[in-house]
Amino acid sequence: MSDLNQLYSEIIMEHYENSPNRRELENPTIKERGHNPLCGDDITLELKMNGDVIEDASFVGHGCAISQASTSMMCDLIKGKNKKEALKLVEKFIDMIHKKDVDLDELGDAQILQGVSDFPARVKCALLAWKTLEKII
Fold first, then answer.
1. According to the UniProt entry, where is the signal peptide (predicted)?
2. Which residue in 13, 27, 83, 118 has its CB near the most CB atoms, within 10 A?
3. Domains of the chain by range and CATH?
């Protein structure tokens, strides 16, 4: 395994095993379940809004390392963003997964999931949280 793949795996596993975003919010403004019945990934995304701004984001649930890490990374990225900015990030992430040319810098850790696009069976895992966020915004 190359050093780069090793790093990516470490970051994914860190988000999967030790995500500070895996928790229930006290009095979330919005709550939405996202699940993929084919593989068993199941999350509930919780947002605390302050007007148009996502003040806090968290999730509970279970699933594979890709779905859980992707959810954790997304939560990190959208905190402090308004709905429009969050939707732009969703669009960029989806475009990245579908191998479109996008500026990856704004996606932070989530850009390491770019390689998921080479594994069609895992694409839904990576997209679950992002599609759930898109639905509730």
1. none
2. 83
3. 3-136 (3.90.1010.10)
